[in-house]
Amino acid sequence: MTRTKPTAAQKRHSLHLASTAAMKILVVLAVAYTFYFCRSLLLPLMLSGLVALFSSPAVRVLTRIHIPKPLAAAAVLSILVFGVGFGISLLYQPASQWAERLPLLSHKLADHVGDMSDSINSIKEVVLPTQSDNPSPVTNAVGSGVIPLLSFIAQATAMALFQLAAVIMLTYFFLVFGDTLMRKLVQFKSSLHEKKNLVVMFQTIRDDISRYVLLVSVINVSLGLATTAVLHLLGVADPMLWGALAAILNFAPYIGPVILLVLLSAVGYTEYQQLSDILLVPGAFLVLNIIESQLITPLVLGRRFNMNPLLVVIWMFIWGWIWGAVGVLIAIPLLVSLKIITSHLDIDPKWLRLLET
Q: Hey, how many other C-beta atoms are within 10 angstroms of the C-beta on 344?
């Protein structure tokens, strides 16, 4: 059977498809690297937008009782900042105490694997023999790296404080002038019918995203409170710290709960001797997380926001590479916001459909 040679039109079509696919890949890479290299600018914008969507219902409630919007936004934002600051002040001391207890955990692990420790020490003596006169290269390296390390910490702290101030300021302006910007965009439409449709679409998108962010925040805070109560009943030290971590890390599905399970396993290993008592601490949180993820969240949010777990984890890893730990935490709210916007704009990207279960 003879093979027919492709025609010139078919060759041009294949070349067009290949060039289009290559262009799309280049665009995706360009967008990813833009987000990566501009993270100091874009991250405060994204964070402030999500915080504004979370707090905008409270601002609208205050404006309905004739409180001026600038004053209402300042009041809501002040409550948020005070609440977060008060929570950090409460949790700072127990967190620092657990950080100081890390050597105790390492010593306890070393007692259980003493033979392995002896083997490592013998290898260390062979590879790094002790020298009484001259300091070792490791000591020189550590000593020479102290000043650069302190400089890096100072720069990172200054940048973090600057970005925090930028998030607070941008959130305030989003709350006060967000609707004004929307009205300005509406003026570009020619007919009254188009203007009304655009206003309805903007308000629906805003309300849907605000509802999602608010509901997820309430669910995560409820999980944190339940974790605090259960760990308190089990007699675990500093249950409020682990409850706060449960609420925060649950913004990163799958990855966040796994991290907390590892931490709670270390807590149980540090505080208890029996294997059943050790496993009871992470097991209690695992039961709570299963109830939340398999029952409460689907019941509250519905199947509209169900997504493929594998692609969700890949999505979070991508944003973790771009924006670090904060990127992992806000990856899912950003993805859901994108789905809501595309659904209301009658845009149906094929890659978004891949995320559905």
A: 14
